[in-house]
Design brief:
about 650 residues, alpha/beta, Alkaline Phosphatase, subunit A, Arylsulfatase, C-terminal domain, Leucine-rich Repeat Variant, 3 domains, 9-stranded mixed β-sheet
Length: about 650
């Protein structure tokens, strides 16, 4: 018997009715409140110095996540990861302020919300760290401006919205870079007296020296957080006054760790763990993983935001997303590990990775000779950073292990038991005591997770920028597509990471063999690993001589910097190589050479005229490349006793 058409579609109608209740007319509005440079320094997270009544009140109405993490400890790679839902380490956008393209089929996730009928606004930060930023902005946002909000006249009546509001109040510039009197004028003056912190009363973390300057700057930090709290309170009041509080799911989170030393820019929990509060109105409580005022200890990464919102709003979820749905009817299993990365930040080169579980944090450092506190002009403008470095110099013999771990050389591997050591003060691999059996097993599982996840996501951050630029130019495709085998050149990512893993190895024969590998990144990592393992070996240095003429700029520069540092016989040739690279038309090559010269200091004094020329060309030029080149060349000139134009990032009066 033929089934009547009405009956055949009845199940579909029923499903559509119930889905329509949630995903149709009653789809939730979404408000994201982002605080720049903020660890969980709030009263609701137990910070004893926090004065944050509005955020504490929000926490009582929200699910408070206790294990939320950024994918990186600095802004632009994080924002690249958030807007695409793909780790910046996978896209080649993990270097701070890079200009690499991303695949054309990777879109800004708000574009999927727009297609589903949402009105999207951004107030006002983008900083997506790719040459495709303009495309991402255009496809993601209906409106973007310092005033863009749900109340825009462009939004249709009853149209659901996704609005992002970004607060700069806790940015590193305010916390430590602006001169203190500018902070007093721009931040502290806006606080009532009862919210201004007394330096004598603040808590000094064990990795800082307890000095008056440190106390003053920590009080300054908490003052910034208090002003942020007032601003968030005003925004939430507007939402309520507009009659939208009961229709809107509110996210509040920091974009990575606080902008003070040993927080932002490090892969420690102080640099990666963030506050995350999500308020679900009564009508959407069924979506929440816990009741209002309760906590969730689920491991959450910012990559989870895109798939969660796309599923929540009834949009079509693309295949390229890397995160997991973290709440709602399609919640996915919690990840066992979270993957983190740090590459070049401003003029400071680095490559480091982390794997974080609930109980342990594993960090792999590929430039262990460089401190977490390696020189960086923007950070070094801060009085607290200057005080820490000064104190370390004057009290080198009495620093605690925690203080020394920040200002001194790093270990190749770091491993922390977070249950016993939540502040990451005791690297178990640097201490004399033996690991327990559970710790040994955990170490091996985290090492294995690191090796598997870096390949699973296609982490290309180990590639020197000069290599990426060359490959992209030759193939005319984004680096992600090149490493996925979609071009003529299909580099073996596993082999490249294996070459980098030799940093910390004493395998002389293998490293010397890699010095002649056909892949430029393998040769690059051979030089880095040899330098770390055999810094003063004359035979190695002689074997390295021809590498100063390598076809790959990063190999030439790393080899010449090492040779200039320790070889009197070949120093002149090495400095000649570096001087030539300083004049490269490609800023990413010139910057690597410039940084090498800066770190060489007095040894590179013959290059003073070239560095003066580089500084003069870039100090007042526009763009991030000019900024970083003038940071590094200016720092060198100051070492040489030359006068430079002081940096001032203060707002205009």
């Amino acid at each position: 018997m033929k089934i009547p058409r009405f009956l055949s579609i009845f199940p579909f109608l029923v499903i559509s009715f119930f889905l329509g209740t949630l995903l149709g007319r009653d789809r939730p509005n979404i408000l994201w409140i982002t605080a720049e440079d903020l660890s969980p320094a709030l009263g609701c997270y137990g910070d004893p110095d926090a004065r944050t009544p509005h955020l504490d009140a929000l926490a009582k109405e929200s699910v408070r996540y206790t294990s939320a993490f950024a994918p990186a400890p600095v802004c632009s790679p994080v924002r690249s990861s958030i807007i695409t839902g793909v780790s910046a380490a996978s896209l080649g956008t993990s270097q701070m302020r890079s200009d690499f393209p991303i695949p054309a089929d990777v879109h800004g996730f708000p574009s999927y919300l727009r297609k589903a009928g949402y009105f999207t606004t951004n107030q006002v930060k983008t900083d997506y760290n790719t040459s495709d930023e303009a495309r991402l902005i255009q496809e993601s946002w209906d409106e973007i401006s310092p005033e863009a909000l749900w109340s825009s006249e462009k939004r249709k009546v009853d149209q659901p919205f996704f609005s992002v509001v970004n607060f700069m109040t806790t940015h590193q510039s305010r916390l430590m870079v602006w001169p203190y009197e500018v902070f007093q004028r721009e931040i502290q003056s806006k606080l009532p007296p009862e919210l201004i912190h007394d330096p004598a009363q603040v808590t000094v973390p064990p990795y800082y020296p307890d000095t008056p300057v440190v106390r003053r700057e920590l009080a300054r930090f908490h003052d910034c957080v208090s002003l942020l709290d007032i601003e968030v309170g005003a925004l939430l009041k507007k939402l309520a006054d507009d009659g939208l509080a009961e229709e809107t799911i509110v996210f509040f989170y920091g974009d990575h760790g606080s902008g003070i030393p040993r927080h932002k820019r490090t892969l420690l929990d102080s640099g990666m763990r963030v506050p995350l509060l999500i308020r679900f109105p009564k009508k959407y409580q069924s979506l929440a993983p816990a009741a209002p005022g309760e906590t969730s200890d689920r491991l959450v990464n910012f990559l989870d935001f895109a798939p969660t919102l796309i599923e929540l709003t009834g949009s079509t979820r693309p295949d390229f997303l890397q995160g997991k749905v973290m709440f709602g009817p399609k919640t996915e299993p919690e990840p066992e590990f979270l993957y983190g990365f740090r590459d070049r930040i401003d003029e400071a080169f680095d490559t480091a990775r982390s794997v974080r579980s609930h109980q342990y944090l594993y960090i792999r450092n590929y430039f262990p000779d460089l401190s977490w506190a390696q020189p960086s002009v923007f950070s070094d403008l801060g009085a607290i950073q200057q005080e820490i470095v000064k104190y370390a110099t004057e009290h080198a013999d009495s620093l605690t292990p925690a203080q020394k771990a920040y200002v001194g050389q790093r270990s190749v591997e770091e491993f922390y038991d977070l249950t016993a050591d939540p502040e990451n003060l005791h690297n178990l691999l640097a201490e004399k005591s033996e690991l327990s059996e559970p710790q040994k097993n955990a170490l091996e599982s985290h090492r294995a997770a690191f090796q598997s996840q870096r390949i699973a996501i296609g982490d290309v951050g180990l590639l020197p920028e000069s290599v990426m630029h060359q490959w992209i130019s030759e193939e005319g495709r984004p680096i992600r597509e090149i490493t996925e085998g979609k071009t003529n050149h299909h580099p073996d990512l596993i082999a490249l990471w294996n070459a980098a893993d030799l940093v910390g190895s004493q395998d002389r024969a293998k490293l010397l063999k890699n010095l002649h590998d056909w892949e430029p990144p393998v040769r690059y990592w051979a030089v880095v690993a040899l330098h770390h393992a055999f810094p003063n070996d004359p035979a190695i240095l002689e074997a390295l001589f021809d590498s100063m003429d390598d076809i790959e700029p990063s190999v030439r520069i790393e080899s010449a910097a090492w040779m200039a540092q320790v070889s009197e016989a070949h120093r002149d040739e090495a400095l000649t190589v570096l001087g030539r690279e300083l004049e490269s038309e490609d800023w990413w090559i010139a910057l690597r050479a410039c940084r090498a010269v800066e770190l060489l200091g007095e040894t590179a004094k013959p290059l003073l005229p070239t560095m003066e020329m580089l500084y003069a060309q870039n100090r007042f030029a526009d763009g991030d490349a000019a900024l970083f080149l003038s940071f590094s060349s200016g720092a060198f000139l100051e070492k040489m006793g030359k006068r430079t134009t002081p940096w001032d990032f203060s707002p205009k009066k």
